[in-house]
Amino acid sequence: MERTWNNKAWFMVLPVLLLVAFSAIIPLMTVVNYSVQDTFGNNVFFWAGSEWFEEILHSDRFWEAMARNLAFSAIILIIEIPLGIFIALNMPKKGWGVPVCLVLMALPLLIPWNVVGTIWQVFGRVDIGLLGYTLRALGFNYNYVNDPFDAWITVIVMDVWHWTSLVVLLCYAGLVSIPDAYYQAAKIDGASRWAIFRYIQLPKMNRVLLIAVLLRFMDSFMIYTEPFVVTGGGPGNTTTFLSIDLVKLAIGEFNLGEAAAMSIVYFLIIMLLSWVFYTVMTAYDAEQ
Amino acid sequence: MNLTWMAWTLPTAIFFITILVLLCGMAIWEYASPGGNPRVGVLRFETTRGDRLFLSLLGSAFIHLAWLGLVGPNLWWALALSVVYAIGVFRYV
């Protein structure tokens, strides 16, 4: 059958295009303009060409923040995705437990990011925080303020606490959409628990997992508020991720040109990695 | 309309006009030949001509960054390399 192409439907996306233009495209254009200039304020700019980009590409500070950010994203994806799947698989599918679990899972997502940071900042304190005090009482030398390892653990656990629920809810939505007939067929065939997961549940969760991985990667790669509130990027620079470094550069040092160049490199890397994730997972999905 | 806050320069204006012309060109191409010409190329998955433009632009940005980082600030060769890369993407991807 011949498909009918009606390109007039594209006019329907015009309002969205206008909205995106004002909220994303025009600011992005401004950042590009800033990245090739230098300013000392008062809306006076001097042409700098590719100077800021060269500076960023040769800056150890940038590559160290990038490495920290990539490590952070990798760690939280390795923890949150399997943990989210595991919790979703074990959540009740019917009865009163369903709304209770859904509400419990949704709670961390409802808390604003700066509040999450504040909660964990207090929670981790060794003098008044439940976590810090308990760990100290148990004999652990825990102090996220001056120990880089403890700071990393705190930031990672905080992120896992805050965002695993998103993965759980997405996976749960994928799981409840599987018709009972699949499970009945698996039971007749005598399929093991692992076989049911591998050949029924995992393929059915593929699309939601793609969204979960993409969202969690992009969010974790852009993380700012929570680590900023808890550790302020420290001790030293050990939890200074790209966004924290970017804000220090743009607002702390008022180095708008260099910060704009850094934003563009940061943006391009996020676009590339998101495209790779999306392509790999949709190609795998198509193969299935 | 006062756009001085956007700090426009001639090179950045030319850059964005080029992107706009490319997008308009793609829209006209789509109007003339609808469907996006999907095909499976060297990457072994289906791409439309929109995907190929995206890959060309993203790849070109990284070619320019790599040139700046590894060679130096003279970007004309990076631009030439990007054009060759874009032709390659549209031909083989």
From TrEMBL, chain A:
Record flagged with keyword Transmembrane: yes
CDD domains, alphabetized: TM_PBP2 (cd06261)
Keyword Transmembrane annotated: yes
Transmembrane segments: 12-36, 70-89, 101-123, 160-183, 208-225, 264-284
Predominant place of localization: membrane
Location of this chain's protein in the cell: Cell membrane
Signal sequence, renumbered to the chain: none
Single Gene Ontology BP annotation: transmembrane transport
Domain ABC transmembrane type-1: start-end pairs: 66-277
InterPro entries: MetI-like, MetI-like_sf, Sugar_ABC_transporter
UniProt record similarity statement: Belongs to the binding-protein-dependent transport system permease family.
Protein name from the UniProt record: ABC transporter permease
